[in-house]
Structure formats: structure tokens, C-alpha cells
Write a structure and sequence with these properties.
By secondary structure, the protein is an alpha/beta fold. The protein has a single domain, classed as 3-Layer(aba) Sandwich (Rossmann fold), CATH 3.40.50.300. The chain is 37% helix and 17% strand. It is built from 11 helices and 8 strands. β3 and β4 form a beta hairpin. The longest helix has 15 residues. The chain binds adenosine-5'-triphosphate (ATP) and magnesium ion. Adenosine-5'-triphosphate binds next to α1 and β7.
């Protein structure tokens, strides 16, 4: 890696977390993973929300799961049998919520260590909250992405989460502001992502706009969210810091006229 702080041939391990529920952790995990895979990086998505798994649903593979992590934990199948190919360079280590007691923090740490030489990136989708499931998801990661929406409760919970995560000796902790409504930011009716990042004292990794439909399928590249996930992947993987400007379509007289006419 370009700044020398990552070991070549070893996966970068990142947890996607938030504190608050429903802010877009799973969407971001799948979106960033898809964008990293599109850059040619072998990426594994690991289900950290083992009881209320949703990564499989967001990736639209919930009907295709053959094995799950608890079967690895009890020795029924091998770890490699459990890894599910999703598309080029993208893989899922699923859980479907059975025998979750077997999926301990130690199991996660050991699993990540075994897979670190097999992938470029391992992204762990954390559950909401700061309890056992959070610890399990964070403990094997060396980097963290906190997801928040522009809402005050989400910002507060994200901030508290970032303080807790800092105790885990992370190499880097960054922020994604999700569900941003460009129009409100433009009219100054909502905090801007930069203001939120300042309040939370975290560097901004990316911004995802509010979308009607988040499509991570093959049509993904045509959506605005996909464009923002690509920018995030470029930042993570290539170090280019280019933040998606959710207010761009509200700026300038031509855009204002277009919107007024429509
Ligand atoms: N940018 C966005 N625009 C519109 N809808 C979004 C956006 N991001 C996420 N959503 C929607 O919000 C809902 C919650 O998203 P998601 O499941 O990713 O959140 P989560 O933080 O993983 O939730 P949980 O805490 O329950 O695991 C989903 O219906 C998802 O499609
Ligand atoms: Mg989730």
C-alpha cells in the first residue's frame, strides 16, 4: 500500500459500524465491497450481524446460501466451503442466524487471521449497538468506517461508537454520511457532511445521497449511489480523496431552471 502502513499480501480488514440501527451499515458494506471488487480487489464481506443477517438480502443471494459460518464453527464444513462467490472478486461469508452462540469474537478473529492472505479486503458488517455483536465485529478489524445519517440521534450514536472503537487500536477510523439530501444541504436546512465530520472529529471517507432505490445488482453502475461508492472505494484503495457533492445538481441557474420546470 502507498503509505507503507499496510502489509502487502495481507487483507485490509475493515468493520462498518454505526451505533444506531438502520442507518445504512449493510448497504455501505455491500456497496463498498462491490466497488472494491469492480476495481479488481478480491473482497470478502463477512456477516457480523449473525442473528439478523441482511448482507445476503442486500446482495440478493439469500436463496442461494448453501452453508453458513456456524457450520464452520462446529466443524461440519471447512471455512473455504462456506465462502460464497457473489460475482467477480466479491465473496460472502454468510450467517443465517442459527447456532449463533458458536460465532464468538474468538471465532471471528481466528477466521479473519486464516483468510488474511486470501483476500485484498475483508469487510465486516457490524450489528447496531455496542454490545457483544459489536465487539465480535470489531475485534478482528484494523480499520473502521462509522456510518451516520444527518440526523442528530445517529450523529450522537456514531460519535459515541467512534470513541469506543478508538480503544481497539485501529489504524484508521473514518466517516460515511449516508442518506444525504442535497437539496436540504444546499438550502442550509440540513448539516453538510463536512459539518457532521467536524462535529464527530472524524475524517470524511464519503457521502451517499438519499436514493429512491439502492440497486447493487448489475445495473448498479448507473445509479448515483454507485458513483459515490466508487469514489469511496477509490479513496480507500487508491488514496484519492474525492467526496461526492450531493448539492451539485442544485447549484447554478441552469440546474435551478431545470428543477423549476420539472
Ligand atoms: N442512501 C440511501 N438512500 C435510501 N435508502 C437507503 C440508503 N441507505 C440505506 N437505505 C435503506 O435504509 C434501510 C436500512 O439500511 P441498512 O439495512 O443498510 O441499515 P443498517 O444500518 O445495516 O441496519 P441494521 O442496524 O438493522 O443492521 C434499508 O431499507 C436501505 O435500503
Ligand atoms: Mg445491517
Amino acid at each position: 500500500m502507498e503509505d507503507g502502513s499496510y502489509t502487502i499480501g495481507m487483507a485490509r480488514t475493515m468493520v462498518i459500524t454505526s451505533g444506531k440501527g438502520g442507518v445504512g451499515k449493510t448497504t455501505c458494506c455491500a456497496g463498498i465491497g462491490t466497488a472494491l471488487a469492480a476495481r479488481g480487489k478480491k473482497t470478502l464481506l463477512m456477516e457480523g450481524d449473525v442473528g439478523l443477517n441482511n448482507l445476503d438480502a442486500v446482495l440478493a443471494v439469500e436463496d442461494k446460501i448453501l452453508y453458513e459460518m456456524s457450520e464452520v464453527a462446529c466443524g461440519k464444513i471447512s471455512l473455504f466451503e462456506c465462502i460464497m462467490p457473489i460475482r467477480d472478486n466479491l465473496f460472502l461469508l454468510p450467517s443465517i442466524g442459527t447456532s449463533v452462540a458458536l460465532l464468538t469474537a474468538e471465532f471471528f478473529m481466528e477466521t479473519i487471521e486464516k483468510l488474511r492472505t486470501e483476500f485484498d479486503y475483508i469487510l465486516i458488517d457490524s450489528p447496531a449497538g455496542l454490545e457483544e455483536g459489536f465487539h465480535r465485529s470489531v475485534v478482528g478489524a484494523q480499520e473502521a468506517i462509522i456510518v451516520t445519517t444527518p440526523h442528530v440521534t445517529s450523529i450522537r450514536d456514531g460519535y459515541k461508537t467512534s470513541r469506543v472503537i478508538a480503544q481497539y487500536d485501529m489504524k484508521r477510523i473514518e466517516l460515511i454520511v449516508n442518506r444525504v439530501r442535497g437539496e436540504y444541504v444546499y438550502k442550509k436546512e440540513s448539516l453538510s457532511p463536512e459539518e457532521i465530520a467536524d462535529m464527530m472529529q472524524l475524517p470524511l471517507c464519503g457521502v451517499i445521497p438519499e436514493e429512491n432505490v439502492i440497486n447493487l445488482g448489475y445495473a448498479m453502475e448507473r445509479t448515483v449511489a454507485a458513483m459515490s461508492f466508487s469514489l469511496i472505494a477509490a479513496h480507500i484503495d487508491g488514496g484519492e480523496r474525492k467526496i461526492f457533492d450531493c448539492t451539485s445538481s442544485y447549484k447554478g441557474w441552469k440546474n435551478r431552471l431545470k428543477r423549476w420546470l420539472s
